[in-house]
């Protein structure tokens, strides 16, 4: 059974301060057209559960349509690290991490309509460690892999340096630690710096 770990996109979902909020509306109703309802959306590319392309923070970085989809489907490990502001290599080494994708659950409730004042972040040695054990995709249940007020985005750059794609705002409140099959695909938007994704997992062996 596949489990959806994607935040629902509603007109009340929290957006990054200063970004364009998500908005869905019916541009035309069936009553108006005589045949169909037609919806339209406007949004930042970094809304809800989303993927950053390196171009988001690096003018020379690859764009969302250039990310190899093969790395976004595969074996994943989900671990829980609660009540830590810094996630270090020492902490990560306590877990048996398998596959090329890792997800970290840092909270028991999502509160997707509230933008957080702070988020837990990895140290650079933790990112380097993940790369050394073959991780190619990193996902977390908060809106950034850097401190909320960071301007240098050191962790975004470090993930790119170690060839790891990062996914933010996974919905992990109803799933537990373990090993999973993972699929998380962005929209194929040419030239984009990021994209909302639909992420799903299924327990290994089920």
UniProtKB/TrEMBL annotation:
<dbReference type="Pfam" id="PF04199">
    <property type="entry name" value="Cyclase"/>
</dbReference>
<dbReference type="InterPro" id="IPR007325">
    <property type="entry name" value="KFase/CYL"/>
</dbReference>
<protein>
    <submittedName>
        <fullName>Cyclase family protein</fullName>
    </submittedName>
</protein>
<dbReference type="InterPro" id="IPR037175">
    <property type="entry name" value="KFase_sf"/>
</dbReference>
């Amino acid at each position: 059974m596949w489990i959806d770990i994607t935040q629902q996109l509603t007109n009340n979902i929290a957006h990054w301060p200063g970004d364009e909020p998500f908005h869905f509306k019916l541009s035309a109703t069936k009553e108006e057209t005589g045949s169909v309802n037609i919806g339209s959306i406007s949004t930042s590319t970094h809304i809800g559960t989303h993927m950053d392309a390196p171009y988001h923070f690096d003018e020379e970085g690859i764009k969302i349509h250039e990310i190899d989809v093969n790395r976004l489907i595969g074996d994943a490990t989900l671990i829980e690290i609660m009540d830590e502001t810094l996630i270090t290599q020492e902490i990560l080494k306590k877990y048996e991490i398998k596959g090329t994708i890792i997800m970290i659950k840092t909270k028991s409730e999502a509160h997707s309509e509230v933008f957080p004042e702070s988020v837990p972040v990895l140290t650079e040695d933790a990112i380097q460690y993940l790369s050394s054990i073959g991780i190619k995709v990193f996902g977390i249940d908060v809106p950034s892999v850097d401190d909320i007020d960071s301007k240098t985005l050191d962790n975004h750059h470090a993930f790119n340096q170690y060839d790891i794609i990062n996914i933010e705002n996974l919905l992990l409140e109803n799933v537990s630690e373990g090993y999973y099959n993972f699929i998380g695909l962005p929209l194929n938007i040419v030239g984009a710096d990021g994209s909302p994704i639909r992420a799903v997992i299924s327990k290994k062996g089920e």
